[in-house]
Amino acid sequence: MMNYSALKDWHNSHKESALIGRYITLHNIQPLIDKLSGLFSVAVLGYSVENRPISKITFGTGPINILGWSQMHGNESTTTKALFDLFHWFDSNKEESAVNRLLTEFTFTMVPMLNPDGAEAYTRINANKVDLNRDAQDCTQPESLILKELYTSLKPDYCLNLHGQRTIFGVGKPPKSAIVSFLSPSQDALRTVTHSRKKGMAIISDLNEMLQEFIPDSVGRYDDGFNINCVGDTLQHKNIPTILFEAGHFPGDYDRETTRVFMFLSLIRVFESVLLLKSEETPSSNSYFSIPENKKCFFDYIIRNIDLPEIGVTDMAIQFEEKLVGDQLNFIPKIAQIAELVDFIGHLEIDLASEKPRVPADFSFEIGNIIEEIQVNGKLPTTFSVKSNNIL
Ligand SMILES: [Zn+2]
């Protein structure tokens, strides 16, 4: 196995600096695709609803076919950044024997942005307002057809379904933020642990082991309820081991620049794990189910013991709404809950110790209201809103 601390250091100084922050569009990645070296071949697979090109990037000469795609949900860009870091890493280190081995064992096909219209608009859905990850059977959308045609012709040995998850997910007891989560999807309603599913589980167990060194107790396992309309479930149903990546929230890192490195490390580890699996008759997947399941138990902020007019002393949760304003992604703090939040944790918590907040006379503490800052007597105001970097 490679030295993952050294890989993390490499990433720190060599990550693709043209891609920073959460709002990543085709404008950002196209120049990088255009200047990829001769190690890579690029082809346009087709066009999105709004006629943006969807490209695949192929490299390596080996017999094991790996297919990955990112930004199927347009606002989930962390794994796209990690893919370009991966391209850069392969290109910079291709002479090294361990890297060269990957290039001769595998042929990689990566679609870095399956939903470029959603990326532009910063939405999960495509331009026809369809969730592409619920369109795997009907394939009503051009983006879904492009992916289907690709996996049908390529017949991949493994698939990587690359996503991002919201800040609300935690793992373990007491819960920590689910910085990354994985799933080896079910391929039937009984969630049978088939041979193909077991391969995915073995790889995820291995990913978890590697990541525990860096982010202990912060790796989650996604719910494995079967839905044939999801792409991962469809592929697993065809006995193609598929791994769902979910890039989550590292505390304080709303740009997901820290999570990005763990996605990069995980991609490389998948390839190493697949090579290990090659030599095993029966993949061992024992530790997969010991990875704690994700649960929705976090808010961006929780204000404890706030004394509200007409309500009295209670807790208040604030959750960011991510909103694109021009080319800038803003995180709008909105009141999400007003209740005793004993089973929830804030990524940041403030205890007002029953003090009455000073607010404008016309402000009402209601769910959905924007709350930019809060102040109590004798203390500096706490400001909630943050902005993501953007590079345009
Ligand atoms: Zn997603």
UniProtKB/TrEMBL annotation:
Xref: Pfam families: Peptidase_M14
Molecular function, one GO term: zinc ion binding
UniProt keyword Hydrolase present: yes
Alphabetized UniProt keyword annotations: Carboxypeptidase, Hydrolase, Protease
A biological process term (GO) from this entry: proteolysis
This protein's record includes keyword Hydrolase: yes
Protein name: Zinc carboxypeptidase
Classification lineage: Bacteria, Pseudomonadati, Bacteroidota, Flavobacteriia, Flavobacteriales
